[in-house]
């Protein structure tokens, strides 16, 4: 049989074990792959989507006797400093795929994360204007944010951690690691981490998109990709804007992102990425209801160089830099309460990974420098620089050691991060351990234990204004967690259940003792959490061919949090998301026309101080609410037409007190793919 006939033969394989052979992946070309091992369980852990290279050859359309035994190279994710086989990853990982991103009625990464039941998204302004993203009841400052494995978490404040210069069309997938993850993502992963992975292959040389909608919404995006010999490059530019759904909610956002991958012999490669983002937006009551006409102008530059060289001994060097500018007006276009900030984060990583008979051993080191110059944050500068009269800087040195061992149906890992920073004397240790076992091909059991830490942001340390008083004596936060999980996967259904305990010590929050007092940053003694995350994915097409392409996801997360607030009013830590239910349904309607429904219901604990015309109306608990979104997509030739209906029932709700979210919002657009 010649090679061409072999590669284009339409059939389905089921893989029961993996072989570490470079050529194994060729066996899967132009075929649907059913992975019947623990990797398949993890891939479908959250919001799994059935993906077929050739729809006509979907597995539910073929008789079971057409399935063949084969071997395939192991599927990997970057739930560590390096790509790691899923069967060796004991941490709980949620993967949002490219298909799910394309099916969602969203304008930004922040909007997309709303549909993850285990992620809390506190939106001040929609469509990526500003959101606090947290995992398992943490704050935005406690979530590490990475782009292609490079940590771009913002030390100024977590409000800006998602000021990343990328467009939705750039994203291949998003990986969410649950729980303290210092060993994986560094010291900022107090409660978890989010790693955004961009596309590296040239599947669409040219992509053009335009959209428009209510509230004078408009947007456009262009992305080009080119492969020349061993080099693959892409460049995307995007713009989105709106006049706003209420006064002071207007925005204008620009993104530009460039990346290049240079491939050498074997698996050796060099990745270069750089980008720029600009945001101007109304910040109506974002930080205090006493001043509703706030405004912000931010911009950021980001870049990195990352290599991967070697075989059994792999070496990964990383250099990175991120600069973020912010101008905040307490009253738009006036000097009252205006302040300026410029933050720089840069560093270097060097990682070694050795694969041998005893498992996989990794050693790594990072030198990270975080700096800020500001009109508000830091200590007085000897020589002021324009608007900037204050400054501060700190250095973080980390070293990691980890070993992963696999034997038959068992996988175990253990490691430690050692860290020294200029905020504390001495070296601190943050260990982690995990164990995974799959008694059958369909069932996976896993357990993890880990510790992490988080440095105070420069805002925590220095932000003193008309409404806030900072505390320069803050200590770093510490966290510890234990997870137990089980995942069951069959062609038609995936079931998942996770329970966890988490303990936070010296947790930082902004508190006050009355509605008229200033907010003050303070270390809580302790915050304890107990939670459960469960979900199911149904693929009825695996049983009934007439329902091919239909996928239903149902997820639920519940958490209980206890803390001694000493009678003080908490701004963040005690206002946690107790319950969140998400339901996603994707299904075809007729040829080329599909529908994607997204339902969300949630209940936030705690309360906020309600203001009406700047008058204090007292504390009010956060009410429960639910929303329903719909995206209709029609594909014809090289064009995709879509119509988005967000918040279809025009529900009034708050993610944070006194900042109402948008009601019903209709928008539509068209995309062209060459």
Walk me through the structure.
- The protein is built from 6 helices and 41 strands.
- The radius of gyration is 25 Å and the shape is globular.
- The longest helix is centred in the first third of the chain and has 6 residues, at 38-43.
- β30 (508-512) and β31 (519-523) form a beta hairpin.
- The two termini are 33 Å apart.
- Mean pLDDT is 85; it is low at 1-75.
- The strands form 7 sheets. The protein has a 22-stranded antiparallel barrel. The protein has a 5-stranded mixed sheet with strand order 6-11-12-9-10. The protein has a 4-stranded mixed sheet with strand order 27-31-30-34.
- 46% of the residues are buried.
- The protein has 674 residues and is mainly beta.
Gist of the model:
With 674 residues, the chain is mostly beta strands.
Helix-strand layout with pairing:
Blueprint: H1 3-7, E1 12-18, E2 32-35, H2 38-43, E3 68-72, E4 76-77, E5 84-85, E6 93-97, H3 98-103, H4 109-113, E7 119-125, E8 130-135, E9 143-147, E10 150-151, E11 171-178, H5 182-185, E12 192-198, E13 206-213, E14 217-228, E15 231-242, E16 251-263, E17 269-282, E18 295-310, E19 313-329, E20 339-356, E21 359-374, E22 379-385, E23 388-407, E24 410-421, E25 428-440, E26 443-454, H6 458-462, E27 468-469, E28 477-489, E29 493-505, E30 508-512, E31 519-523, E32 526-538, E33 551-563, E34 569-570, E35 577-590, E36 593-604, E37 607-612, E38 615-621, E39 625-636, E40 639-646, E41 665-673
Parallel strand pairs: 1-2, 1-3, 9-12, 27-31
Antiparallel strand pairs: 4-5, 6-11, 7-8, 9-10, 11-12, 13-14, 13-41, 14-15, 15-16, 16-17, 17-18, 18-19, 19-20, 20-21, 21-23, 22-23, 23-24, 24-25, 25-26, 26-28, 28-29, 29-32, 30-31, 30-34, 32-33, 33-35, 35-36, 36-39, 37-38, 39-40, 40-41
């Amino acid at each position: 049989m010649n090679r061409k006939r072999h590669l284009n033969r339409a059939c389905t394989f089921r893989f029961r074990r993996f072989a570490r052979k470079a050529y194994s992946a060729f066996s899967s070309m132009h075929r649907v792959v059913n992975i019947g091992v623990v990797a398949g369980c993890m891939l479908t852990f959250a919001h799994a989507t059935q993906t077929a290279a050739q729809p006509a050859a979907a597995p539910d359309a073929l008789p079971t006797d057409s399935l063949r035994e084969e071997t395939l190279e192991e599927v990997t994710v970057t739930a560590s400093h390096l790509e790691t086989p899923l069967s060796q990853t004991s941490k709980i990982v949620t993967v949002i795929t490219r298909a799910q991103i394309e099916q969602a009625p969203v304008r930004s990464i922040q909007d997309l994360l709303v549909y993850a039941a285990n992620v809390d998204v506190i939106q001040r302004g929609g469509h990526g204007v500003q959101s606090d993203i947290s995992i398992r009841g943490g704050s935005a400052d406690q979530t590490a944010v990475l782009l292609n494995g490079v940590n771009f978490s913002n030390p100024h404040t977590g409000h800006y951690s998602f000021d990343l210069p990328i467009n939705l069309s750039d994203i291949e997938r998003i990986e969410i690691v649950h729980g303290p993850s210092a060993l994986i993502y560094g010291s900022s992963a107090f409660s978890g981490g989010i790693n955004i992975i961009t596309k590296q292959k040239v599947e669409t040389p040219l992509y053009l998109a335009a959209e428009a909608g209510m509230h004078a919404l408009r947007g456009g995006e262009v992305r080009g990709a080119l492969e020349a010999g061993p080099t693959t490059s892409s460049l995307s530019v995007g713009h989105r804007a709106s006049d706003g759904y209420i006064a002071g909610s207007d925005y204008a956002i620009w993104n530009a992102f460039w990346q290049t991958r240079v491939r050498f012999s074997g698996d050796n490669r060099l990745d270069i990425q750089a980008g720029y983002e600009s945001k101007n937006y109304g910040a109506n009551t974002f930080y205090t209801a006493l001043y509703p006409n706030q405004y912000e102008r931010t911009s950021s530059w980001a870049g990195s160089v990352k290599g991967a060289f070697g075989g059994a001994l792999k070496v990964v060097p990383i250099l990175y830099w991120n600069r973020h500018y912010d101008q905040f007006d307490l009253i738009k276009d006036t000097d009252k309460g205006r302040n300026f900030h410029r933050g720089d984060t840069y560093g270097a990583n060097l990682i070694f990974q050795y694969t041998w008979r005893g498992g996989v051993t990794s050693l790594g080191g990072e030198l990270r420098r975080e700096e800020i110059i500001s009109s508000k944050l830091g200590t007085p500068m000897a020589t002021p620089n324009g608007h900037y009269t204050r400054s501060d800087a700190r250095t973080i040195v980390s070293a990691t050691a980890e070993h992963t061992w696999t034997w038959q149906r068992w996988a175990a890992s253990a490691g430690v991060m050692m860290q020294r920073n200029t905020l504390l004397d001495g070296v601190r240790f943050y260990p982690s351990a995990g164990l995974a076992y799959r008694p059958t091909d369909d069932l996976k059991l896993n357990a993890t234990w880990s510790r992490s830490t988080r440095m105070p942001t420069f805002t925590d340390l220095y932000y003193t204004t008309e409404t806030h008083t900072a505390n320069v004596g803050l200590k770093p936060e510490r966290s510890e967690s234990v997870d137990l999980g089980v995942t069951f996967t069959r062609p038609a259904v995936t079931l998942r259940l996770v329970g966890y305990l988490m303990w936070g010590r010296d947790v930082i929050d902004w508190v006050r003792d009355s509605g008229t007092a200033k907010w003050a940053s303070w270390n809580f003694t302790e915050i304890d959490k107990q939670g459960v995350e469960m979900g199911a994915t149904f693929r009825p097409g695996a049983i009934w061919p007439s329902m091919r392409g239909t996928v239903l996801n149902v997820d639920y997360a519940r958490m209980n949090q206890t803390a001694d607030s000493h009678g003080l009013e908490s701004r963040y830590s005690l206002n946690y998301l107790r319950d969140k239910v998400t339901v996603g349904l994707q299904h075809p309607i007729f040829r080329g026309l599909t529908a994607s429904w997204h339902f969300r219901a949630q209940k936030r604990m705690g309360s906020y101080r309600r203001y009406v015309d700047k008058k204090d109306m007292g504390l009010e608990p956060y009410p429960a609410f639910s929303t329903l979104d719909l995206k209709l997509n029609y594909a014809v030739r090289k064009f995709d037409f879509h119509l988005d209906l967000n918040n279809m029932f025009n529900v009034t709700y708050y993610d944070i007190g006194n900042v109402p979210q948008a009601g019903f919002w209709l928008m539509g657009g068209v995309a062209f793919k060459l």
